[in-house]
Amino acid sequence: MSLVSYGHALALTVERDPGAVALVHDDRVTTHRELDLRSNRLARAFAKQGVSAGDFVTIALPNGLAFVESLFACWKLGATPQPVSSRLPRHERDAIVELVSPRLIVAADAAEHPGRPVFTPEGIAEAGSESAEPLPDVVSRYRMAICSGGSTGRPKVVVDHIPGQLDPEEPFHGRGRGSSILVPGPLYHSGPLINCLSVLLRGGRVVLMTRFDPAEALGLIERHRLELAIFVPTMLLRIWKLPEEERNAFDLSSLRRVVSSSASLPEWLYREWIEWIGPARVWEAYGGSERIGGTLISGSEWLRKPGSVGRPSEGRRLRIVGPSGEDLPAGEVGDVYFMPPGGPGSTYHYLGADPRRLPDGWETLGDMGYVDEEGYLFLVDRRTDLVITGGANVYPAEVEGAIESHPDVIACAVIGLPDEDLGATVHAIVQTDADLDEATLRAHLEDRLVRYKVPRSFELVREPLKDDAGKVRRRALREARLPR
Description:
Number of strands: 27
Oligomer: single chain
Helix content: 25-40%
Radius of gyration: 23 Å
Strand content: 25-35%
Largest sheet: 9 strands, mixed
Low-confidence stretches: none
CATH topology of one domain: Rossmann fold
Shape: globular
Mean pLDDT: 92
Strand order of the largest sheet: 3-2-12-11-13-14-15-16-17
CATH superfamily of one domain: ANL, N-terminal domain
CATH class of one domain: Alpha Beta
C-alpha cells in the first residue's frame, strides 16, 4: 500500500472496521470511529483559533483521550503537535513556549499562559458541537516536536522531519495491522508517543496508563491480551521487584515482545527478564528523538552478546571516535557517532540548540561506547555523566545498576562531587522506603563492583529520583549538592 496521511490512515481503519477499539484509558474505551469523529470536531475548533498547516501546537495534558484527540486534530490541519509534561514547572514551560512560539497551547489552566491563546479541556468538550465531517486531506510537514533538556539544562526542541504520513500495512515490531500495545509512559516523550501512534495508525489498540504501576501494568496485559509493551528500565525493575508469586500470577502468554528503551538496561536485569519470559520476547532499543541513529537487539541475540544494544538498524551507520577525532578500533571506548541513511540533517532540526556534528556530518547523541568485531554496540554512559576519580573512569549507569539490584532500592542516581585530592568522588543518591543503611549497601556492592567504583558516600532519600519516563535530572541533583 502507498503512503497516506495520518488522518486518512485513521479513516481507513474506520472503513474496514468501524467498531475497532483504538484506545483504552482508565477503563474508558474509544473506537477508531469515535476518535476519527472527535478529532474532526476538535480540528475545526483549533482552526477557529487560527491553527493551520505548518503551525506548532503545544500540548500540556496528562495521558488520556484528550491528548490523543489533540494529536490527530493537529495532523488533520497539517500542524505539528509539540507535547510537554502537564506537570512541568511553569518557568520551564514558559521557556519552551517562548522557544517554539506555538499558534495554540492546549493546557488545563489558561491563566498560566497570559497573552497566548489557550485551549482548555472545557474547550475540548465544547468542540463536540463542531461538524464531524471529514476535513480536506493534508500531510503535516513535521509529525512531532519533542522537548529535551539535554546536558546543558537549557530547553531544546527536536523537530522530527518525518512528515505526517505512513504505509499502514507496514509491520511494526514484527506485528501487522490490528496489533495491541501497553503504553505506560508519558506521551510527551518520543518513545511512548511513537509506539502509541504507530499502533493506532495501523488500526491497532492502545492501552494507555495515566501513571505506571507495576502490578496494574501486568494486570492490563492479562486483561486485554496485549501483544506488545514498551517500558523503560525503571519500570522493568519495579515489575521484577514485585513478589515472585505476584509476578507469576499474571497470564502474559499474549505478549509477543517487551521492548526496553530510553535508558540503559542493566545486564543483570535483562538476564532476569529473559529467564522469566524467554529470550525471544525481550528486546532493547537504543536511539534518540533525533533519529540520527538507533540499534535494536533481541534477547536471543543478547545472550550471545551480553551487554550489547545491538547493531545499527534501518540503514544507519555508526563509528567510534577518539578524543582527536580518530576512528577507534573494536574494543576501545570513545564517542558514539551516527550517520542516518539520508545524510546529515535529514532526520531532524533543533529549536534552541546546535547539533553535535563533526565537519564530515557524523553526529552524536552524547553517549560513549565501543563496538566489537561483529559491529555490535556496547554503551558505557553519557560523556557528560562520566565521573573521573583519581584518574579512573566511573560510569554512573554501571554503579546505579548494581545498587538498584538490591531488593529494597527503588531507584538510584550516581553523580560526581568535587574533591581536592581525587578530582571527584562518586556519590550515590538512593531512593528507598526501607530502613537501609550505608553498611548494607556497601556489603551488597562488594562482589558487584571493583573498589574504586563503589561510592565514597551514600544519601538515602524518600522522594522520587526519576520522572515518569525513567529519566534522571542528574545535572540538577549535582548542582543542588555542590558547596555554595
